[in-house]
UniProtKB/TrEMBL annotation:
It comes from the Bacteria. Keywords: Signal. Residues 1-19 form the signal peptide. This is Spore coat protein U domain-containing protein.
């Protein structure tokens, strides 16, 4: 019975440590959107900074929604700006999520949201 209890504690401990950070503990700052190039070679650049305000090192998954002028989502993509690297508390990482989207001329507005947190 003690072995089962110890195994359960060891399995749950990483989940408990992970629960200390939430999506609301991350901030997205300094977002700049631009279309680079012209014609068929136009690509989207959506640059920003992801800041970890959590008390422990973790990574965050960000969703980028590209919307038309009426606010309808045309395309949505998710990515991990820091990849599989944890961001230390109080630190930030620069990112460009635009490379995940193919530019469309009716894209008018963009939103970035932290949708997940993980400690690697």
């Amino acid at each position: 019975m003690k072995t089962l209890l110890a195994a359960t504690v060891l399995m749950v401990a990483p989940i408990a440590a992970h629960a200390a950070c939430a999506a609301t503990d991350f901030a997205i700052q300094d977002v700049k959107v631009s279309a680079v190039g012209s014609g068929i070679a136009t690509r989207l650049s959506v640059k920003g900074k992801l800041v970890n305000n959590c008390t422990s090192a973790a990574a965050a998954q960000v969703r980028l929604d590209a919307k038309d002028g009426s606010g309808n989502v045309l395309v949505s993509k998710q990515g991990w700006p820091a990849g599989t690297t944890n961001i230390s508390p109080g630190q930030s990482v620069d990112f460009d999520m635009g490379r995940l989207l193919h530019y469309q001329s009716d894209m008018q507005n963009y939103s970035l949201t932290v949708v997940g947190v993980r400690a690697w």
